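Technical annex, item 7. During the second reporting period the consortium partners agreed on a shared format for inverse folding records so that results from different sites could be compared directly. Each record opens with the tokenized structure and is followed by the designed sequence. A conforming record, contributed by the partner at site C, is shown below for reference.
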């Protein structure tokens, strides 16, 4: 028997998820029992388009139901894990147990630990405090994004206030209910409405809540593609608005017939200039180069201008070689040139002389691991400390193959829970073994052989290529 196609499998499932009122043959608003003649025009392409839209709506409802099932499974997992773990004897032990469970969920779902931690908290809130929201999610009446908005806005509300919040938007029989179903609003508009209602009806004054939230202010950095990155700040509203307005005013002042940058581009340049200590009102000054520590690995051929291979900025990833040259020439205070193997692009060993972890070894670990080796962790290696995989007292050596650079969080996880690192080599960071025995590989750098100009290849003798051993201490 031939296997069914994906469309054949999805057809009955998505059909069951589409309300009868919008399917042919079921009438509906303004329709009759025949359905086809009223809902669909005679053009077969229009009928196909309508069916595609119906199936999309059905798939969206399936995704909502799957999200509800995931939340319930996670809540059950937490319940089982709590029953299996021995009673915590201290807050530190309780935190370690929670950290171990978060890591287990993150590895099982292949997500970051922050995402896993958020998912555990959201699942707990949905299954214990927001029954109407969970029921609407199970019915496909709202999406997972809508459910997350409800969880966010219910945070720090007492049970009665949280119940009133979800009843206003999800219970049509509630006193003074919202106008229109929540699921018919895009999540961003739903968040706007839910936040306004929350602020108006919150039992605690906004002054007290603001004082508490100020402690959570922070600056966040997220690398992006094409040598770009996102920088965002969580600040009190007046400061954030002041920064935005000042950057906008300065950008508008720079506009003129000779200025080819857009207002959006100039606003970003003004903010970067101010943060890096430059003069934002000088249209010819440009954004100054950073003076903070920057570790850059540049292929030697690119540095010489023979190729345009990207350089590597520690904590970010590939950047244009022109950017690397400018950082090196204009102010980067820390620059390491690393010899790479011409066979596969891997960095070569840079030295080991004693029991104590040397500076050269730490630099080597940074090049081998690039970041914390725990699966999904992106903490840059600059913040991490070298750690022996097999302790010295148990016969471990201080060679590269017995060292890793976990971040403080995962260093603590290793020594306070059942998570253990696996073996490493000179080229490969260690994997990890969870308390349940599951094995997870660490992320490995994607080395590639360096690109050589064609005129150089003829001059590269075979002995030179073979004379690049990579010892494994």
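Designed sequence (site C submission):
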């Amino acid at each position: 028997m031939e296997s069914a196609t994906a469309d054949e499998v999805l057809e009955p499932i998505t059909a069951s998820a589409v309300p009868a009122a919008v399917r042919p043959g079921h009438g509906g608003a303004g329709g009759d029992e025949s359905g086809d003649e009223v809902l669909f025009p005679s053009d077969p392409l229009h009928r196909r388009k309508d069916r595609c839209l119906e199936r999309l709506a059905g798939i969206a409802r399936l995704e909502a139901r799957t999200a509800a099932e995931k939340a319930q499974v996670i809540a059950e997992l937490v319940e089982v894990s709590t029953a299996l773990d021995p009673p915590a004897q201290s807050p530190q032990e309780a935190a370690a147990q929670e950290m171990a469970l978060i890591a287990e969920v993150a590895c099982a779902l292949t997500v970051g630990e922050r995402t896993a931690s958020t998912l555990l908290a959201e699942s707990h809130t949905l299954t214990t405090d927001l029954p109407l929201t969970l029921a609407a999610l199970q019915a496909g009446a709202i999406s997972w994004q809508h459910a997350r908005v409800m969880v966010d806005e219910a945070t720090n509300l007492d049970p009665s206030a949280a119940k009133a919040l979800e009843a206003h938007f999800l219970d049509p029989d509630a006193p003074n209910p919202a106008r229109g179903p929540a699921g018919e609003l895009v999540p961003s508009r739903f968040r706007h409405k839910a936040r306004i209602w929350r602020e108006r009806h919150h039992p605690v004054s906004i002054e007290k809540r603001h004082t508490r939230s100020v402690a959570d202010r922070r600056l966040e950095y997220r690398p992006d593609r094409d040598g770009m990155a996102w920088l965002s700040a969580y600040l009190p509203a007046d400061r954030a608005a002041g920064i935005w307005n000042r950057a906008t005013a300065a950008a508008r002042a720079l506009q003129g017939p000779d200025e080819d940058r857009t207002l959006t581009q100039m606003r970003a340049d003004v903010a970067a200039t101010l943060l890096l200590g430059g003069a934002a009102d000088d249209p010819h000054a440009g954004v100054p180069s950073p003076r903070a520590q920057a570790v850059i690995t540049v292929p030697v051929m690119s540095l010489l201008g023979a190729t345009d291979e990207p350089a590597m900025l520690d904590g970010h990833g590939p950047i244009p070689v022109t950017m690397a040259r400018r950082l090196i020439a204009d102010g980067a205070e820390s620059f390491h040139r690393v010899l790479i193997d011409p066979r596969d692009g891997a960095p070569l060993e840079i030295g080991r002389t004693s029991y104590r972890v040397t500076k050269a070894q730490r630099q080597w670990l940074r090049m081998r691991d690039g970041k914390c080796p725990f699966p999904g962790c992106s903490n840059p290696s600059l913040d991490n400390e070298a750690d022996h995989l097999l302790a010295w007292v148990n016969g471990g050596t201080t060679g590269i193959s017995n060292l890793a650079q976990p971040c403080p969080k995962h260093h603590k996880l290793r020594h306070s829970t059942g998570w253990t690192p696996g073996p490493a080599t000179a080229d490969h960071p260690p994997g990890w073994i969870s308390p349940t025995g599951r094995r997870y590989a660490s992320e490995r750098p994607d080395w590639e052989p360096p690109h050589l100009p064609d005129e150089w290849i003829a001059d590269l003798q075979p002995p030179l290529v073979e004379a690049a051993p990579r010892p494994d201490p």
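Residues 1-6, 16-38, 348-355, 463-473 have pLDDT under 50 and may be disordered. The chain has 18 helices and ten strands. All partners now use this format for quarterly exchanges.
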